[in-house]
Amino acid sequence: MFHHEATMAWLQEHRDCDCDCDCKCLLRPPPRSLRPATTSSPVRRHPGLLLLLLSLLSWASLLGTTSAASLLPHVGRQDRARSAPTPQILEADPLVPGWDGPELVLDTREPPMPPAYYGHATETTSAPPAKRSIKTDPKANGDFEIPVPFDSALNNNFTTSCAQFFRAMLTSETVTDCHPFSLMLQTSNSLFKASRSFVRITQTLEATCAANSTQCKSGTNDLARQLLADDACKIDYDNNNPQVVQAYNGLIAYEPMYLASCLKDDDGDFCYANAVTNTTSEGIDAVPFYLPLGVNMPGGSRPTCNSCLQDEMAIFSSFAANSTQPISKTYSGAASTISMYCGTAFVNVTAAPLKGAASASTATFTPMLSLLIMVFFYIFQ
């Protein structure tokens, strides 16, 4: 207020011009002492201070946001913990009446068996007594005679030397003491009759498996070599005489047939006895036992996918790679058929390699190395 009045007095005092002409003189600014005092802020005097304040404000806002975000989950959990309703436990009301309907009937029967999945061997159990055999003999005792091979009349299509060999073979200790199941399966009429009884076929298998397999294998292999001699059945074998071929295959297949016929299930019963006397499968479970004798399994055959079948095929697989064994011609087709409905993991489709057999790469590398050595010496000689 004071500065304003002093300024107005100065203007009235200096209104006249210094010049003599009638002209309006320009007003000169009042002296500095009469100007109003202006105050300048520290921020205008120091611009760097403004930048420092802005930076501090920015950092403070960022730190505040982070702290709030870190606290939100804890706050939310506390709120939820406070707001979560306490479950109410209902107590039984003694005044409420119980079930007054008809009496409940509980099913105490055993649950049904789960479905069998292909690719997994089912447990092999013995057939119930009603299904084990068509006809059994409850009075069976130790007087039962073990079946023998070629017990029916032989045909007349033999050479004289071959007929003599057959008579000597059937009375040899190898046949009478070993009771070779491989030689009886296709040629014994008494074995066919014994297969109608679970007791009789079990007694037959017990006699077969009680023999010394090592000595019996040596004896049957020796008889097979004698059969192919010129003074025995060589001509008959070359002419594909059915009984001679069956005899030869039964002799050389003694070992795989011995191992397969002596297989037992978890209950201690012979797998072949269960297979041949089980009317449920109608004897189809016994079909794979003919593979070592050179008999192909029919395409429509579907033996039960159980542990017995899996063990049989595992035994046959170890002999299928031997070209001298008849099963080398029948195993592959049977394994492919079984794998289609039992699963690829159930059976080994390819035969197991022979022990000590050279690999294909080694067999082809040897002649190639010899050829390279010959070329080297030819060039540098």
Automatic annotation (TrEMBL):
- InterPro entries, per this entry? DUF7729
Q: What's in the keyword line of the UniProt record?
A: Membrane, Transmembrane, Transmembrane helix
Which parts pass through the membrane? 49-72, 331-351, 357-380
Q: Which Pfam families match?
A: DUF7729 (PF24855)
Look up the coiled coil feature and give its residue ranges: none
Q: Locate the DUF7729 domain: which residues?
A: 146-350
Its recorded name reads DUF7729 domain-containing protein
Q: Which organism is it from?
A: Pseudopithomyces chartarum
Mind giving the lineage of the organism this protein is from? Eukaryota, Fungi, Dikarya, Ascomycota, Pezizomycotina
